[in-house]
Amino acid sequence: MDVQIASELSPDLIESRPARLDNLARLDRRLAWVVTCAPAVGFGVAMLLLLCGYPVGAVEIGLWLGMHILILIGVEVGFHRHFAHRSFNLRRPVRVALAILGSMAFQGPVIWWAATHRRHHNYSDKPGDPHSPHLHGEGPQRLMRGLFHAHMGWLFVPESTRAVGWDRYAHDLYRDKAVFKVHTLYFYWLLLGFVIPAILGGILTRTWMGAFLGFLWGGLVRIFMMNHVFYWCINSVTHTFGTRPFVSNDQSTNNIWLAIPTLGQSWHNNHHAFPSSAMMGLRWWEVDIGGWVVRALERLNLAWDVKTPSQAMMRRLRRN
User: What is the pTM of this model?
Assistant: First the structure.
């Protein structure tokens, strides 16, 4: 949600320019309304068309799933495992491609995303965590409030989206000229995430309606399902419900039901126990599609220095 130049975002300058920070906070809140509401409206339109008897064919489903998989690889393999945690190295063209793909997810630009996630790990489920569900008190009502905050409410809170000095968590990314360029062009990549499925839908069906349905299913429905239904559940569901096979300094959990649609991110207790690991699934049956992508890149000599925990490390932190 931020495309400011690095010098403008230094902690000292932010602290000395409260009026500018207030303006950026207002912009963040407006963008949060768009991020949360526009995909939901698009999903509603798609469901209305279905109820009215307008069929959804292989083109629409293919565009939805194809865009979902490619863009979520950009988020999970690129934004998360590579940029935020530096769990493996990548050749520059792949690094840039993943940054562009992840930017189409409507989750914010790459440097902001990585800095926010690093801050989350630094304060996980403690004061300072931008999106913990456990900082709103005890009781069912406060738990629901916390889950809403963790899922998407935090996007409307300036202290969560742009805490003073947040950029100090990503100085290494600001120094990377290619990544910084992708970061500043965030809104163009967002637009491209809608244009690509619209063009493909039009070409494949040779109709304007096909272009509209491509935009709808490959764009808005894809974002709604990716964020609201699946990926944002990592902040809420997998810090509340599930199993905790490893000792960690927070309340992160593993959730098998979200493993496939999040490409392995829902093995979240594994991740918080070993945050620098490129692999989220640590047992043979823990499906980790993102980890498979990393291994494929490694075999193609496009990734190297892939970090994984040793058996001794896992035994030391395992609860049983």
Answer: 0.91
